[in-house]
Amino acid sequence: MSSDALEKWRGARASRLDNLAAAHRAVAGDGAGRRWLTVEVNHALIVRLASEFQGYCRELHDQAIDAFLASTFDAGHAAAPIVRRLLTGGRKLDSGNASWANVNNDFARLGMSIKTELSSRYPKRSGPWTKKLERLNDARNAIAHDNAAQLAASHAEQPLTLATFRAWRSGLDQMASGIDEVVAAYLKDLNGEEPW
Known about the structure:
By secondary structure, the chain is an all-alpha fold. It has one domain. It has helices spanning 4-28, 35-72, 79-88, 92-95, 100-108, 114-121, 126-144, 148-157, 162-191. The longest helix is centred in the N-terminal third of the chain and has 38 residues, at 35-72. This is RiboL-PSP-HEPN domain-containing protein.
């Protein structure tokens, strides 16, 4: 079973990305050429993809905390909201990108190394997934902060095109499923029951 966060990633979040990709087609058509029309739409796709993945990670973290608290405290226990504040206070996913370092940092609050868990379960895929995530966040930061040098470096590393957006999205779709699995398995080992 999947978390609500993953279902939303595959549902509402995917729909928003699909709508923006449809806007790209409306501006550029399906044929080659007319790149000058699509540069800004490509940038919008990249920024939106980064924000949707950050939202997914934050929601999954919230759900993991809920599962942890439900298995640790009786309903209505006075300590539960205190522990929740400790687990979410200063959370990197609330103020920074869903960089691999920030995702790891926030899930470490629950005592897990998401990096180790993902690498162990998906040894051949976790490296490419994290590389795509880091490239996406580098591009997002360059666009959002209007940093011409950083934007040029991102374009040089991988052109910020519709094809790149699709490749990054595909990688993040797989990564989201993988993260969901490792968090669920960790919580089941910790609590002795399925978290969702």
